[in-house]
Amino acid sequence: MKITIKEANKYVDQEVTIGCWLANKRSSGKIAFLQLRDGSGFIQGVVVKEDVGEDIFAHAKSASQESSMYVTGIIQKDERSPFGFELLVKNIEVIHESVDYPITPKAHGPEFLMDNRHLWLRSKRQHAIMKIRNEIIRATYEFFNNEGFVKVDPPILTGSAPEGTSELFATKYFEEDAYLSQSGQLYLEAAAMALGKVFSFGPTFRAEKSKTRRHLIEFWMIEPEMAFYEFKDNLEVQEQYVSYVVQSALKNCTLELNTLGRDTSKLEQIQAPFPRITYDDAVTFLNEKGFADIKWGDDLGAPHETAIAESYDKPVFITHYPTSIKPFYMQPDPDRDDVVLCADLIAPEGYGEIVGGSERIHDFGLLEKRIEEYGLSKEAYKWYLELRQYGSVPHSGFGLGLERTVAWISGVEHVRETIPFPRLLNRLYP
Ligand code: 4AD
Questions:
Q1: Does ipTM exceed 0.90?
Q2: How many CA atoms lie within 13 Å of 98's alpha carbon, on the beta-carbon side?
């Protein structure tokens, strides 16, 4: 019977065969312990010389790290193992012997590990992070489908730029200039006018010259957009969605969070509603805290966000930023047009901004004026303006950065570990 390690619980006391790799091993004179992995999980194989005979025992002792093999044995319950089971080995058939695997159990530096990302992905830690990433994606689809959203897929090759022109990856689209998408938002607004509530999940590209633990050049974003949703409705969707994803990860990734040593008590508190603080109050708070560098009108940097987040156990919304530092499409506050109806959601524990969102301008004249003021091409945005000509309605949306969210939930310091093959400043390999 060929099974995966994850299915071990169904085969207690039965003989099974597992296709796997040897992650690690140790042995004494008469017994060898093989740490086996097959992608679905990890299990310890126990090889007793007396049981298997000289030949198979010699095989077990000499097998090299990352050799692939079929291991046959009896599944046994084992309370001490993190998986609850071990395999009493009867036979080992090596499929391919791995020679001089570069990532040994000793410590390696991050540059070496990044150069070997194609192999590093096999480690227990990376396995746990990828499983948590997968659970966040799964829970995202579940949440938005349950709430009646329709998934739509905006284009990757685009002719217009929602988040400003300085961070665009330009390319040629035959004879025309084109850009890699930095957000699907503008297309999602069109889709929301057709389908009501929509969301997308896809890669986005930013040619940002930032080399921080929060910046990737290529990252994945979840972008919901809702017709008839105003500013406050938008925040409610965000806090419910983020809570849902965190609780799903806690429920379905217990083993992975333990592997990473994540303090799960911090995640258990993540339940809607989330606190809100205005940009005005944030600046006052920062000045009182001794941040003399920040004055009204400045954008907030990572240290500012961290200082604000430290006051809360849950993610915090910073709302109503100055109009002058935000993109052209954001709806001004009806009571004062120097701020817009937007919010950034800052994760606790220093993980920074995970969501950016806003109510969008739905008045044709105002949007046209903003496009002119921002020096954007009216021709390129003609279709976007037309959404305000045929039954325009208030609408809102947001974008959640997947990798920053994975980093926070996993308790991982740097976003480079939260995506299988990170694209960073100066890194396009492997
Ligand atoms: O705040 P941003 O730029 O918002 C938008 O792009 C909106 N158009 C989204 C929308 O309303 N539909 O980006 C949203 C989120 C950030 O909060 C952050 O989590 C993530 O995307 N993000 C990055 N993640 C990794 N590396 C980068 N360089 C990122 N830039 C933004």
A1: yes
A2: 18
Ligand 1: which of 217, 245, 325, 353 to mutate, most ligand atoms within 8 Å of CB? 353
Nearest Cα to Cα of residue 353 among 164, 188, 219: 219
In angstroms, the CA 246 to CA 132 distance is 10
17-34 mean pLDDT: 95
Closest atom of ligand 1 relative to the 415 alpha carbon: 25
Among protein residues, the one with the nearest Cα to ligand 1's atom 7 is 399
CA–CA distance, 199 with 134 (Å, rounded to integer): 17
Residue 185, ligand 1, Cβ within 6 A: yes
The alpha carbon of 198 and the centre of ligand 1 are apart by a number of angstroms equal to 18
404 lines ligand 1 (CB under 6 A): yes
Distances (CA, A) of 35 to 11, 71, 98: 19, 12, 15
Q: Is 49 in the pocket of ligand 1 (CB under 6 A)?
A: no
Report the interhelical angle of 402-410 vs 124-146 (nearest 10°).
120
Give the angle subtended at the CA of 219 by the CAs of 40 and 41, to the nearest 5°. Answer: 10
134-182, pLDDT tens digit by residue? 999 999 999 999 999 999 999 999 986 666 667 899 999 999 989 999 9
For atom 1 of ligand 1, the residue with the nearest CA is: 356
Quick one: pLDDT at residue 159? 83
Torsional sign, CA 303, 308, 311, 313: negative
Q: What is the pLDDT of residue 218?
A: 98
Answer yes or no: are the C-beta atoms of 202 and 154 closer than 8 Å.
yes
Q: Which domains does the chain have, with CATH numbers?
A: 5-96 (2.40.50.140), 117-417 (3.30.930.10)
Question: DSSP letters along 208-221, please?
Answer: ----STT--SEEEE
396 is written with which tokens? 């809102």
Would the CB of 221 count as within 6 Å of ligand 1? yes
Q: Name residues whose C-beta falls within 8 Å of residue 352's C-beta, 6 or more positions apart in sequence.
A: 214, 302, 305, 306, 309, 346, 404
Q: State the helix-helix crossing angle for 231-252 and 402-410, rounded to 10 degrees.
A: 50
Q: Taking every pair of C-alpha atoms in the chain, what is the biggest distance, in angstroms? A: 85
